[in-house]
Amino acid sequence: MFGSRHSPWEPLQYDATMKYRRKSCWTLTALALLLSLPLPAAAQMPNSETPPEKREGVGIDQNLNAALPLELEFVDEQGRAVQLQEYFNDKPVILAMVYYDCPMLCTLVLNGLLRGLSPLKFSAGQEFDIVAVSIDPDETAELAKAKKDEYTALYDREPGARGWHFLTGSEENIRRLAEAVGFNYRYDSETDLYIHASGVMVATPDGRLSRYFYGIEYPPRDLRLALVESADGKIGSPVDQLLLYCFSYDPSLGKYTMVVMNVMRLGGILTILAVAAFIIISYLRDRRRGDAEATA
Prior knowledge:
Elements: H1 19-36, H2 52-55, E1 59-60, E2 73-75, E3 81-83, E4 93-98, H3 105-117, E5 129-134, H4 141-155, E6 164-167, H5 171-181, E7 183-184, E8 186-188, E9 193-195, E10 199-203, E11 209-214, H6 220-230, H7 238-246, E12 247-250, E13 255-258, H8 260-295
């Protein structure tokens, strides 16, 4: 069997011991699971069509718990000079480093964020804010306003207009913010485009980076848990706290994963409570029955 040659698509022949087949099955299963895992943070790269030499140094580095430079000045969609700290008060903030005239990737990031937030009961402008900052210093407030009008219309919630913010700024301030966030990008003069990775960040009300999400799809559950954690429990419900007991943020994957041990503990506690409830109910029922027989 081992000396014969097979096509890659030809099924393995039956072996009486089945050892080779079982070993191959387990190997292929493990390989499939490995390939299905999301890429780690450093591997979240821009479009694969971009030449490798132009992608060098581009990506997102996690600077968890780093303080954002809130003193930086930008221009909002109304053309008003603002400091970043104006958007950090008593609510967590979702931060997106994009540019508004991007032909594809930035739109996919904002669309993915919109899809992830739409199912949530939390509303932008009420429980959290969204701040998008253009990495292109040549973009204008008029372009930022057009983006805001587009996405607040799609979001279609009453407090949404005051919760979505689209900023532009100088090259120096954009770079300083990008460095603080760990957002590494570069300008390609040949195509007149910016090469960058895709992702969004969540920051605490006092301006510290707490969570990173990569790619262009952001699961509603992960966004909700990130907002609850970043708000230090000031928003959310007991169910959210229970979910946070069962799920933990994995920085290497940029997502929430199940904490198996905590789930097992919770299952054990629920089992004990169920058994205790059964014993108490059975005891009370037998006692009532005994009292009724004694009265009769």
